[in-house]
Amino acid sequence: METLIFFLRQMLNFSIPLLIVAIGSMYSSRSGVVNIGLDGIMIMGAFTSFMFIRFTEGIMPPQLQIIIAIIISIATGLIFSLLHAFASINLNADQIISGQALNMFAPAFSVFAARIILGDSIISFRNFFIIEEIPFLSKIPFIGDILFRDVYLTTYLGFIVLIVANFVLYRTRFGLRLRACGEHPQAPDSVGINVRKFRYFGVMISGALGGLGGLVFVLPNSTNFNGQVSGYGFLALAVMIFGQWSPMKIFFASMFFGSLKTMSAIYSGLPFFNTLGIPSEFYKLMPYLITMIVLAFGPKGLTGPRAEGKPFQKGMS
Amino acid sequence: MKKLLNKLLVNNAFNSILSSLIPILMGLLVGFVVMYIFNPEGAWPGFLTMLQGGLTDQARGIGQVLYYTTTYILVGLSVGFSFQNGLFNIGVIGQFTIAAYVAIIIGAKVTNLPGSVHWLVAMLGAGVAGAIWAAFPGLLKAFFNVSEIITTIMMNYISIYLVNYLVYTTHYDKSIVASAYIEKTALMPKLGLDKIFPGSSINSGLFIAIFVAIVMYIILYKTTFGYSLRSCGLNRDASQYAGINEKRNIFLVMIIAGFIAGLAGGINYQSSITKVYKISETFINEPGYSIPVALLGHSHPLGIIFSSFFIAHITVGGSLSQGYGFPVETVGIITAVIIYFSAFSLVFKNMLIKYFTRRKYRGSGSMIDAASELELELGAGVTDPDVIADTSTKL
User: Fold this and answer.
1) What are the residue ranges spanned by the domains of chain A?
2) What's the rounded Cα separation, in Å, for the pair B306 and B310?
3) Helix (H, G, I), strand (E, B), or coil: what is residue A149?
C-alpha cells in the first residue's frame, strides 16, 4: 500500500505536465496547425518562470511566488508561440520546420541568457513550494494521501486544464468552431467564421499550456533548470496521438506514459524491480521505446484532424 | 542591364541563393540584437570575431573550420536527402550517436586488422550502424504509417541511454567519465593536411564528405531512382499513381540517410586520439546543425557543401567570441533564427520576384497582368524541391 501511494504520487509529478502539454498540442492540432515546437515552448516557459523564482527567492511567500510564476510561464509560452502562429498561419510556412526552429532556439537562448545573467547555465532554486497537507481533504483514505498531502499547487492545474478542455471542446461554440477549422476549414469559412483567427487561438492556447507545462515539469522533479525538459514536448505529442486528440483519452495516455517515466525514476526504491538487476539505462529508455511500439502497433485509425498541417488560404478549395 | 537583371531573377539557382541569404542575414541580425541586449559593450567586437570565424586564427582556424565542415556536410546531406523524398530525418542525432559508439568499439577492440584498413572498417561499420538505426523508423513509416518525426526523436533518446550503457560496460575510462581511447591505426588518415593546417583536427574525412555529396548529386539528379525519390517528395499521390514504389523508396531513403549520418559519427570520433564519447544525458552537439545546414543548402548536395562551410565558419567564430563574454550558444540562437526564416524562404522568394517584376513593368499600364504572367512562366522554377512537399504528413 505504502509503495502504491508512493508510486502514484510520483506518477502525478510526471503525468501532469504531460497531460497539460498534450492537451495544449491538442488545441493546436484541432485548429489545424501542427505544433512540434512545444518542447521549445516548455523550455522558454520554464526559463522565465524559474528566473523569476530565482530572483524573488526569500522575498515573497512561496505560494504567492508560484502563482506569479504560473502566470509568467503562461504568458511566455503564449508570446513565444506567436512566432509559430505567424509563420504557419500568415505566411503558410512549413509548420514542421518553424516548430523545429522554436525547439532549437529555446535551449540555446535559455543557456545563453542564464550564463550571462547568472554566470551559470543552470538555474537552481530552493524548493519551498510543497503543500504539506490540505485540512479535511487529506483525511480521505487513499485519495487524500495521493492528492492532498505533500502536493504542489501545479498538480491541481492539470486537472483543471483537463476539465476545462473537455468542456470547451465539446460544449461550447468556440470548441465547435475550432474543431471545424481543423477538420474542414472551407466549411466555417463559408459561413463567415474567420479561420485564421481560430487557428491563432489554437496555437496560442497550445503555447500557453506548453509554457505552463515547462514550469509544472521542472518544479516537482528537480531543484534546477538546465535548459532542457528531456524531450517532454515530443513525448506529449506522442501522448496526444495515442490519446486520439480527445481530452479524456489523452488523460489516460498521459497517466500511462507517466507511470513508465516513474518506473525509470524510482525503480531502485521498489524492492521487486531492484532485484531484477536490469541496468538503470534500460529503465530510462523504456518510455521512449514503448512510445514507438505503441504508435506502431497500437489502435489503428490514429488519424488526426483532417486539415492538420495544411495551410488555409481564403477562397481556395 | 534590365535584361540581365530579369534573366538573373528567372534563374532558379540565383533565386535559391538569394532566398538563403535572407535567412542568414536575419539570423545574424537577431543574433546581434540578442548579444547587444545582454552585453552592449562586448556585442560589436564579439559579433565581428564571430563573423571572422576561423580567419582570426590563421591556418589552424581554417583547418578547424574545415574539420567542422566535414561533419556538417555529412549530417546535412543525411537530412537533405530525406527532405528530397518528403521525409524529415530528425534522427540524425541518434544515428550519429550509435555510429560513434560502433566506430569507437571497432577502433579500440578490433586490433588484428592491418593498419591501413582499420580506419576504413571502423568508418564503414559506423555507417552500417547508422543505417540499421534509421531502418526502424523507415520500416515503421513505410508499413505502419507512423510519423518518422516522432519515431526518430524517440530513437534519439533511446540511443543516448543505450550508448551510455554500452560504453559503461564495454569500453569505459573512469578517470575521464568517457569512453577509453581508440587505437592509432583507427584514426582517419591525415594525408598531409595536418602539415598545411597545423594544430587543427582536419583529416581526410573532408574528401569523403565531398565525395559523398557528389555521389548524392549524381543519384538524385542523374538516375531514375533519384528522379522517383524527388517526385515522391514533390507529390506523393501523383508519384504513387505513376507507379513509383513509395514504400520501398521511404525505406531506402531512411537507410541511406542513416548510413551517411553514421559516416559522420564515425569520422567525427576517429578524428583524433583525444576524441572520446562523453557519458552524458544530453545530445551530442554536432549533428544538431544538420537541419539548418540542409535547409540553407535547399537540400541540394552542392548547396549543402556551402551552407556547411558557413555554419562551420560561425561555429568556430562563436567559440572565439567567448573571449568577449558570450557563450557558444550564440551560434545556436543564430542558427535557430536561420531555420525559422528559411521555413518561409519561399515567401521571400515570391516577394522578391514580385518586387522586381513590378519595377520592370512600372508605367506600362498592365503591371499586375505582367507580373502574374511572369510568375506563371516561373511556375516550374518556383516550386523547388526545397519545398518539403508533404507538411500534411500526419504527426
Assistant:
1) 15-236
2) 6
3) strand
pLDDT for A158 equals 92
Grid coordinates 583536427 are at which residue?
A: B201
Unique residue bearing C-alpha cell 531543484: A223
The reported pLDDT for the residue numbered B9 is 64
For A278-292, give one letter per residue: b (16+ CB within 10 A) or e. Answer: eeebbbbbbbbbebb
Q: Is the dihedral of CA B114, B118, B120, B121 positive or negative?
A: positive
Q: Do B343 and A98 touch (CB under 8 A)?
A: yes
Tens-binned pLDDT, residue by residue, of chain A (317 aa) = 778 888 888 899 999 999 999 999 999 999 999 998 999 999 999 999 999 999 998 888 888 999 999 999 999 999 999 999 999 998 888 888 899 899 999 999 999 999 989 988 888 888 888 887 778 777 787 778 778 878 888 888 999 999 999 999 999 999 999 999 999 999 999 999 999 999 999 999 999 999 999 999 999 888 889 888 888 898 898 889 888 899 999 999 999 989 988 888 787 777 777 777 778 888 888 888 988 888 888 766 556 788 887 888 776 54
SS3 A301: coil
Angle, helices A95-118/A38-56, rounded to nearest 10 degrees: 20
B279-320 residue pLDDT tens: 888 888 888 889 889 988 888 999 999 999 999 998 888 888
Cα separation, A74 vs B139, in Å, equals 39
Domain boundaries, chain B: 27-347
What average pLDDT does the segment B107-111 reach?
87
* Residue B5, pLDDT above cutoff 90: no
- pLDDT of res. B385: 35
CA atoms within 13 A on the CB side of A228: 8
Which residues in chain A have their CB less than 8 angstroms from residue B343's CB? 87, 93-94, 97-98, 101
ipTM over 0.95: no
A241: contact with B, CB 8 A cutoff: yes
Burial of B280 (0-12, 13-18, 19+ CB in 10 A): exposed
CB contact under 8 A, A228 and B282: yes
| Interface mutation target, options A33, A35, A82, A96, chain B, most CBs of B under 10 Å | A96
A228, B283 contact by CB (below 8 A)? no
In CATH, B27-347 is 2.50.20: no
Q: Are B278 and B178 in contact (CB under 8 A)?
A: yes
Check pLDDT > 60 for residue B373.
Answer: no
Contact (Cβ atoms closer than 8 angstroms) between residue A36 and residue B395: yes
Q: Which three cell numbers stand for residue A7?
A: 508510486
Is-contact B348 B101, C-beta < 8 A? no
In this structure, the number of other CB atoms found within 10 A of the CB of residue B89 comes to: 30
Residue B51, all three cell numbers: 563573423
Considering only CB atoms, B150 lies closest to which of A104, A107, A237, namely A237
Q: In the Cβ-directed half-sphere of B325, how many Cα atoms lie within 13 Å?
A: 16
Q: End-to-end alpha-carbon separation of chain B, Å?
A: 49
C-alpha cell at A182: 481543423
Q: What kind and span of H or E run contains A125?
A: none
Test the A interface: residue of B20, B33, B158, B282 with most A CBs within 10 Å: B158
Contact B395 A279 (CB under 8 A): no
Displacement of CA B257 from its chain's centroid (Å)? 11
Cell match 513505410: residue? Answer: B142
CA A210 to chain centre: 5
